[in-house]
Amino acid sequence: MLSVPRPWLVIAALSSGVFGCATVGGAKGRDLVTLRFAWPEQSTIRVMHTVDVRSDWSGRMTAQRRYAMRLGPGDEQGRRRLIIQDVEVTEAPFPAFVEPLATSIIDAQGEFQGIDPLEEGPGQDLLDALPVSPGKKAQMAKALTNGLEREARNRWDEWVGSWHGASFTPGMTHVVPMTMSVGTGRKKTEEVPAEERVRLDVGVPCSDAVPEPRCVKLKLVREPVGQTDETKGRYAHVELELVTDPATLLPYSSRIIRMDRVDWNGGKGEPDFHEAVNMEQHTFIHGVEGPPGQVATNAGMPRYHASP
């Protein structure tokens, strides 16, 4: 049985709520695997971040950046700062992709506690360069701070915050009822009953550079109840695949894919279905100065690609 993790947050800000769980398949009697947060102080991680967006109305856009993360020493309360530095944007068709990355505050248990004030980071330099009134600048500063904190929290929950302390039986699928957002028109959505299916596999190579099978792979799939990728009509599908060290929750790769099929006519008249597939991947290299290698080729995308 799953020791239910905290609600998982993704870049699309999907709503979720955990009401209970069931288990499906897998071998009974296996030992539980409990995931622990134990990042060493002064951990340095190189990150390659790739976003690949495809739709049948606007084709394909990709964005890529690389940066370093460093987890500093604890303060009197045991809180540590996850500092982002050496950011290099190599491809950025999305305006949000060039926004600064905030320094996160993490407590001793691995819970996200917020971000450093904006005036202490690169976001302030961005605002100072804008020729706007002080009142407008204050509004923009608040909006930017809220956005940076939301992004930092979602990123941490994806890698660590949703999982630390959770226990899984390897090979078993744990089913959690919840809701998810499904498009009902070009700019309209509704919440529908959904299931989140979570499975943990052990003995997984951490990466090509670290082939020892000491990592685990967490795979989470969220779909509306009773639907699969074979479903006709409107549809949504979200999946997360995380390869991590169960003893520390130091991640080696994390990938989120969301697929949507939406009737742009909103159910009025002849259906006009359109598809989009969004993929976001982070690849991590620990304790080295060089950047990660290439990630997320076409083979990494699901078989239900949107047509270019």
Which class best fits the helix and strand makeup?
Answer: mainly beta
Biggest pleated-sheet summary: 12 strands, antiparallel
Radius of gyration: 20 Å
**Average predicted local confidence, pLDDT:** 80
Number of strands: 14
Q: What sequence of helices (H) and strands (E) makes up the elements?
A: EEEEEEEHHEEEEEEE
Beta fraction = 35-45%
Helices, by number, come to 2
Task: Please render the helix and strand layout as text.
Layout: E1 22-24, E2 33-34, E3 43-55, E4 59-71, E5 80-91, E6 104-106, E7 112-115, H1 122-128, H2 134-161, E8 167-168, E9 173-183, E10 189-204, E11 215-224, E12 235-244, E13 251-263, E14 273-286
Antiparallel strand pairs: 1-9, 2-8, 3-4, 3-14, 4-5, 5-6, 6-7, 9-10, 10-11, 11-12, 12-13, 13-14
Mind explaining what this structure looks like?
Helix content is 11%, strand content 41%. It is built from 2 helices and 14 strands. A hairpin with a 5-residue loop joins strand 9 and strand 10. Helix 1 runs antiparallel to helix 2. The N terminus and C terminus are likely disordered.
A few lines on this structure:
The protein has 308 residues and is mainly β. The chain has helices at 122-128, 134-161, and strands spanning 22-24, 33-34, 43-55, 59-71, 80-91, 104-106, 112-115, 167-168, 173-183, 189-204, 215-224, 235-244, 251-263, 273-286. Strands 1-9-10-11-12-13-14-3-4-5-6-7 form a 12-stranded antiparallel β-sheet, covered by helices on one side. A two-stranded antiparallel ribbon has the order 2-8.
